[in-house]
Each structure stands twice: as structure tokens, then as C-alpha cells.
Amino acid sequence: MAAQHQRALLPQWKLVYIVLVTALVVGGALIAAPAADARITKVVIDIKESPTFGGFEWPGVGKYEKIVGRAFGEVDPFDEKNAVIVDIGLAPRNTRGNVEYSFDFYMLKPIDLSRGAHKMMYEPPNRGGKTWANLGRVVVDPGKNGDDPGSAISNPTALANLFLMQRGFTVVWSGWDKSAGSSNANFNTTITLPIAKNAGNSTITGPAYEYIVTGGASFTLNYSAATLDKTKARLTHRVHLDDLPVDIPASGWNFNAAGTAISLVGSNFIANDIYEFSYTAKDPSVNGLGFAALRD
Fold it and tell me: Of 17, 92, 234, 242, whose CB has the highest number of CB atoms within 10 Å?
């Protein structure tokens, strides 16, 4: 199902990322917060391109720069703001008793912030991808990666029409959603979340459900299967939502060796029909930390 896209205009007091990363660029590529800080504890700068957008200059604002990196954070699982996160009490803790996470970020900002708007537009990535080009009718160069907008737009007319840059906004994306996957190649924006464990560090298992509509015969599961025994799982097929689901026999589909994906065999797969997969999964990640990452 398509995810809802949301954009948020944040006031100046939320420019913690901008202030922090700007300080990093001046002072070095890495900074760590004091041990007692239970929010963002470290930021690593992997790429600084200054200027970006091929050096294009917006009147009254100037040139922009691109800053890409990874941020590391932690939360107190007993704080009432965090205790509501599902399974956070079962997540591993560091020596300070906090639960850790990390995420990618991508920032476009005026080189001279004093000429900027002192405001930030934050867009939560859609499964790791940046949607601003599609939503804002931004013209990306043919063959270029829209998830790297600083390097993907060179046409002067297109650049001059960038609404936010004309007005000096800083634009930020950061990882929050597990469904983005684990690879940040090609500027995919990911988050790394802890795995919840039972007391004694034993594996947590439980029922899982996947609603599958895809053009390919293979599908990556959100959670790994606890067993590869196909008699413990059920896969059904239907064409329309109001059709009755029909079971696909075990001979009609397979797990991969790691239990992280399933594939349909031969004529059992019809592109973009509705498949539903029920199985026992393992190793749940603490996904609610993604919202804490946005908050902090």
C-alpha cells in the first residue's frame, strides 16, 4: 500500500540539526555529546559538498551546500515519553541504561545561514526515498538520482524555480522507517533499530502478516521467519479485495535459505494480484524508536 507523504515546516527552535551540523563542519567531521545526554549523542559527516547544485546562486540567499552523514542517539526506556514505545523494555541497553539507535540524514542548507530563512522544511522519507521532486514538480536531470537532489539538478531554469531555495529554507531528510531497508546506497535514508529479546536474551517469536501486491514473484518479509517449515505458514491469493482468498499449496511457493523472503513458483504468481502471507516471525525490531528519532 502506498505510504502517506507528509511535509512539515519547523520553526527556528527546531533547527538543532542545522546548528549542530554547521558546528561540525567548522570544527571537524565528528562530535560526541556528554555521557549524560540521552538524545542525539554523535553525528558523523560523510559528505560535505560546498557549493552544491553546481554552484547555482539564488538572489538574496546565495549558494547552497549538501551535508550527508549519520546520527547516533539513545533514549531512556523508563522516561514516560519513551516507555510507550512497543517492546522498548525488551531492547538491549548501553552502560548508561539507555536504548541506542542510529540513522542517516541528508541536508541542503544555505552556505551563509545569516542569509537564509532560519527555517527548516523536514520531509520524512517514504521508505527511504525523497518524494519532494515528485510532489513539488522539481525537474531532475535525466538519468540522475532524485534521492541526491544536490547533484541531480543542474538546469538553471529548474534551479531558479526551486521554491524553498528561493526563500532560503534548509531542507532535511532523516531515516525513521524500518521498511527503508538496511542499505543507504544511492542516498537511501535508513535507520538502524535494536532487536527486542526475551529475558535471558532468548529470541522473541510471534505471528506475522504480510499484504503483498507486487510486480515481481519474490517478496522480502518485514521480519525473518522463525521456521522454514512451510506447513506452519499460509499463503493466499485473490484478484479483488472482495474475492474470497484461495490457499496456495506449499508446492507453489518457497522461502529463501535465510527465511527473509518468499517467492512464488510458476503460474502461482500473477503480477499485482493480492497475496496474503501469515507465518511465525522472529526478532522484532523496536520500530517506535523511529518516531523518537524524529522527535529528538
Answer: 17
